[in-house]
Specification:
- The chain is mainly α.
- The chain has one domain.
- Helix content is 80%, strand content 0%.
- The chain has 6 helices and no strands.
- Helix 2 packs across helix 5, helix 4 packs antiparallel against helix 5 and helix 5 packs antiparallel against helix 6.
- The longest helix is centred in the C-terminal third of the chain and has 53 residues.
- The two termini are 34 Å apart.
Length: 226
């Protein structure tokens, strides 16, 4: 297919690009959003290089696994084997939920550089969507981390009590486990509370950014048509 070049249309297109970029620079709100979004993207790339949630899971998983091996050797294969099975099930679920869930936007690929993009406002909105996808991924990881500590930390404390004190807590397995789950559940709820609040605040802020960008884009498009 042969493409024809129309200098008038090209000049009009470049004027539109220039005007949109000037809008980005002149609007205090949009400039603030752009700076915040760019900083978040830069920070997110540094965070993605290390999986903090998986590291925290392994910090609990290894001592729990060693404890399970020791206690099942000492007491034989009893109900104490159940948490070991649970560990393998959890890691299977974790792997299937986390694998290939990175946002599919390539912000550094050719054609998506901001200086070359014909619609800077749309490009800014694309970056906000990218961050929303990342925060969704972060929410899944945080939920899994929280669930892991709520489910497995009580078992670790219970088994360590059996090993160190050499007796069953409250002389009753069920009561001992219920107390362990109650105490650990309350403790970890307060421990993760701020993380969930911070993530929720960040997601709401990004949604507000998206609304503001969309409003500016509609306003700019209307003024161009006039």
């Amino acid at each position: 297919m042969e493409l024809s070049f129309n200098k008038g249309n090209y000049d009009q297109h470049m004027n539109m690009v220039k005007a949109t970029k000037e809008l980005l620079n002149e609007s205090i709100v949009l400039r603030s959003i752009k700076e915040n979004v760019d900083n978040r993207i830069s920070h997110s790339r540094e965070e993605n290089s290390s999986d903090k949630e998986l590291t925290l899971i392994l910090i609990l998983a290894f001592p729990l696994l060693i404890t399970l091996i020791y206690i099942n050797i000492q007491f034989g294969l009893t109900w104490r084997l159940i948490p070991a099975v649970g560990l393998f099930v959890f890691f299977f679920v974790y792997y299937n939920l986390i694998k290939d869930d990175s946002p599919d936007l390539q912000l550094t690929s050719p054609g998506l550089h901001e200086d070359d993009n014909p619609k800077p406002l749309k490009f800014l909105e694309m970056k906000v969507n990218y961050l929303l996808s990342l925060s969704g991924q972060q929410k899944i990881k945080l939920d899994l981390l929280y669930a892991f500590y709520i489910l497995f930390f009580p078992f670790l404390t219970y088994f360590l009590y059996e090993i160190i004190i050499k007796s069953t807590p409250f002389d009753n397995i069920i009561i001992g486990l219920l107390v362990a789950f109650l105490i650990c559940g309350v403790a970890w709820h307060f421990f993760f509370k701020n993380d969930f609040k911070t993530l929720e605040y960040s997601q709401n802020q990004l949604r507000d950014y998206k609304k503001l960008i969309h409003q500016h884009y509609i306003s700019y498009s209307s003024s161009e048509e006039e």
